[in-house]
Amino acid sequence: MIAVVQRVVSAGVSVDDHTVGEIGKGLVVLLGVAKGDEEGDAKYLSDKIVNLRIFEDSNGKMNLSLLDISGEMLVVSQFTLLADCRKGRRPSFVGAAEPEQADELYEYFAERVRRHVRKVATGQFRTMMKVSLVNDGPVTIILDSTRG
Q1: Which pLDDT score, from 0 to 100, does residue 148 have?
Q2: What contacts 19, CB < 8 A, 6 or more positions away?
Q3: Which residue segments constitute the domains of the chain, with CATH numbers given?
């Protein structure tokens, strides 16, 4: 499971020009589910991300977590994070999980985050979405559950 984590001032996701989720200060998580991923991968990444100390403290040091600042999270499923571009010029997505498994783990990830974070918004699985965000920093971190 791969997550691209972006620290934001605000963010939103829309489908057909209709907002389906939005947050204020917090994190946008683009989440890709790979073949072979299990609940343990979602548990690891959800715990890691909510506790990741990437928000500034009063001294300007990245020392606070999403939980410390009572921040919000927008989670968007993004299978294209599993793209393999090593051969040719067209990405291969053979490493991405089948949609049913990916949706199940995506929902499990979001549910685990909801246990700790006051507001968690999501996109719509298997839908063309428009994600807008205002980066804060910018701070962008890539996490992979297999590289613990």
Answers
A1: 65
A2: 12, 13
A3: 2-147 (3.50.80.10)
